[in-house]
Specification:
mainly alpha
């Protein structure tokens, strides 16, 4: 059973890596995605076409949506904290519902920031690989393998 869980985690990591490559880096050639991630082209096709082409919609709106969503979450966090701090001295503590909400918003912010950091890493890697590709194509192929390993490590 432990081996099955490990395989599932590995497949989930591959899924996330492929999704980041597709939505952030713009790698839309399924053969390239399958080679870089280590799954079959059919698996990539299934992932890309799942959920009514969610990956395509994500690719179109990745950066704008994240910035707007981050602002919204920070505004909610600030508003709730302001409400709590507006109480009389000695009563400025979150009740259980407010504490739960604060915790959930903070986690969502952390998750969003982590995804944004990965997106930025991938953007820099993409630009660097384009630069190297123009200088030395074979070296770019070597670096692409290392870059993919680095990104997979960041996903964990």
């Amino acid at each position: 059973m432990a081996k099955q869980k490990n395989t599932s985690q590995s497949m989930q990591q591959k899924h996330e890596h492929a999704k980041l490559l597709y939505t952030v880096q713009g790698v839309t050639v399924q053969k390239e995605l399958s080679e870089r991630v280590g799954v079959s082209p059919q698996t990539i096709n299934k992932w890309v076409n799942a959920d009514d082409r969610l990956w395509d919609r994500m690719r179109e709106s990745t950066l704008i949506t994240k910035e707007a969503e981050m602002r919204r979450m920070y505004m909610q966090l600030t508003e709730l904290n302001d409400k709590i701090m507006g109480r009389e001295k000695g009563d400025r503590f979150a009740n259980s519902k407010e504490a739960d909400t604060l915790s959930k918003i903070a986690k969502a912010i952390k998750d969003m920031e982590t995804e944004t950091a990965l997106a930025e890493i991938m953007e820099v890697m993409k630009n660097f690989l384009v630069f190297v590709r123009h200088q030395d194509y074979e070296k770019a192929k070597e670096i692409t393998v290392l870059a993919d390993h680095f990104i997979k490590a960041q996903i964990r």
